[in-house]
Amino acid sequence: MLVGVIYVMLRFWNDRQGNYGMLFAIAMVPIMGGLALAVDYQEISSQRQATLNALDAAGIATARFIVSGASDAEVISYANKFFKANLSSAVDPDKTKLSVVLPSNQAGGGTLKLTADLDYRPYFYNVFTDLLNRDKGGNDEAIGISASTEIRLKNTLEVALVLDNSGSMKDLGSGSGQKRIDLLKVAAKQLVDTLALQANLIKQVDKPVQFSLVPFAASVNVGPQNAVKPWMDTDGISPVHQENFNWSSMSSGDKRAAHHNGVWTKEGSGWGGEEGEILTRFSLYKDMRHVSSREWVVTGREYVCTRYDWKGRCTDGRWQDTGYYDETITPFASWQGCVEARPYPHNTTDSAPNAMRNEVGVVSGDPATLFVPMFAPDEPGDRWDAPGDPQRDNFSAANNWWNDGNISGGQARLRNMSKYFDVRPFGATSPQGSGPNYSCTTNPLTELVDVSQPAGLNSIKSAIDAMAPNGATNVPEGIAWGWRTLSSTEPFTGGRPETERGNDKVVIVLTDGANTYYTPGSLNYSDPADSKSTYSAYGYMKPGYNGTNTSRLFMGVSGAVGQFDYSNGNYSNAMNEQMAKLCANAKDSKILLMTVALDLDSTKPSESAQIDALKSCSSDSRFRKDPADPSKPAKLFWNATGSNLSEKFKEIADELSNLRIVS
Question: 497 and 577: one domain?
Answer without folding.
Answer: yes
